[in-house]
Model the fold of this input.
Amino acid sequence: MAIKLDSSIIRKVAMALSGLFLIIFLTQHFIINISSVFSEKIFNMLSHFMGNNFIVQFIAQPILIVGVLFHFIMGFYLEWQNRSARSVKYVVYKGSANSTWISRNMIVSGAVVLSFLVLHFYDFWIPEMKYKYYDFLAEDPNRYHEELVHKFNDPIKVILYCISFFFLALHLLHGFASSFKSLGTDSRYYYSIDLFTKIYAIGIPLGFCFIAVFHLITNIVTH
Amino acid sequence: MQLTLKIWRQENADSKGKIVSYEISDVSPDMSFLEMMDVLNEELMIKGIDPVAFDHDCREGICGSCSMFINGEAHGPDRYVTTCQLHMRKFKDGDTIYVEPFRAKTFPVIKDLVVDRTAFDRIQHAGGFISVNTSGNTQDANSIPIEKANADKAFDAATCIGCGACVATCKNSSAMLFVSAKVSQFALLPQGEVEATDRVINMVKQMDEEGFGNCTNTGACQVECPKGISLDNIARMNRELVKAQFKK
Done:
């Protein structure tokens, strides 16, 4: 067996696999976050587990970071390669006649999601790392819900989050179904895959928006 | 019909091209697009202007020679037709029509609307064939039973005429639809199984070496393909290549 990583199809398969891996992560992230709406106790319990479990922190988290970096770096590399494959552009190019805007602009939606991740890391991940591995503060299993709610007291930030989730939905609408096609899934499953993609790609980002808006409203009502 | 044609003119591969505007009148809606181009060229020659160079051969949608990007679409606004099968009734009197060559780094312009598509030939040479003993002992193809569904799919893939509309249309200039059709037409048949592993590896390798872009499953190629080659073939080729990696 000799897997040629320089093959365009193998790169395509690698992009699909990394995308699906990130979708699995997104799903578990959503499940934990949505619990914050229904139960402070469950959210704290899950967050405490995720934040202090050795396997999650030192095995799953580095794998996730590598997955995110690979997906973005490979995405930008492929975009550069694709653009250079047509040195002289068309005077008139009617892309809308044969494909969706979403499928033609994955780099745009991807770049917005990347920008969001920078904001998200600044908001949550960096303070969390500082709390645990720089300041070495004592672990409080009940701090997570309050911290989360506090982050969403700024309407501008909530709007920025919702815009990012809109672009995440666009990215997923093409990327999810496309990844299965890249993996060579037989066309008899396309209808089910496309249907599930639509439900997931709209449902999950909408759910994330709901969480942000819910906590913003909670903040306004309680203060 | 009276039309304004904005056509890409380029003296040769090394010169810089530009869009040149021509007015043409008395165009019959029943003319094919190439017949309209013939009329234009006659008028240009009478005026002593170099006629517009364009590829054509069979003029019945079989050879895949005619390669024009018309008003932003490969082979123009109609579906499942090549440029030679496109009729002027698809346009309105007074329209402005942009005519450009198929564009990709792998399809360099030779002159005006004529592009070099020999990259496709090299991909085909890399594995788009089966090795059969033709010394007189060739087995009758009909003696090998083939499932009807597979025979149909193989035949559909084999209808690819290699015109290059998929590359011209794809925002990435990817040749995956063409290569996958050529891989599929053999992969689906027992006659093609013997060389299946080498075929897919060599054809994809050649495709990559030529410098075509990557497929991002936009589906534009399938829509613009004059023969309606399905995107399913790309998924099949992906499977074939991944399988081949484990066999090699």
Q: What stands out?
A: Chain B touches chain A through 54 residues (CB under 8 Å).
